[in-house]
Amino acid sequence: MTDYASLERQLSALLDTRDWLTNAAQTSAFLMHTLEDLNWVGFYLQRQPETLILGPFQGQPACNPIPFSRGVCGAAARTRETQRIDDVHAVPDHIACDAASRSELVVPVLVDGKVWGVLDIDSPRPARFSAEDQAGIERLCRIFIDASDL
């Protein structure tokens, strides 16, 4: 069981600048090294209409760009709702960047109601993310948003 309250305090202390790029890189590295059973953590940014482009991340090289109309990241951006997927191979339009990924959690990063990007987390373990993980990671994402000039 992950102590998300402790992780929230640690991430808050780590993000000591308002620079979004530094904070995104730090958040990705922090999550990759503090949460178990992950193989990719990073941000995709909306820099073109209805399209996500690769931002700071930890893990294997990733797919780029991702349209809002495809994949789990696209669904999170399109619906503005967190996507928690137990088996990515069961998602018909899943974009497979790393064949080792089996489950995924994608949190939309919203600023003033608009999609700034998404935080994407992949695991090689099926059903890696629980409702508790989702709530905890959503809170960690909120810390990133509040600490950054987005």
UniProtKB/TrEMBL annotation:
Transmembrane segments: none annotated. It comes from the Bacteria. It holds the Pfam family GAF. Residues 6-150 form the GAF domain. Gene3D superfamilies: 3.30.450.40. InterPro entries: FRMsr_CS (IPR000614), GAF (IPR003018), GAF-like_dom_sf (IPR029016), Phosphatase_reg/MetRdx (IPR051330). Belongs to the free Met sulfoxide reductase family. This is GAF domain-containing protein. It comes from Salinicola rhizosphaerae. The lineage of its organism: Bacteria, Pseudomonadati, Pseudomonadota, Gammaproteobacteria, Oceanospirillales.
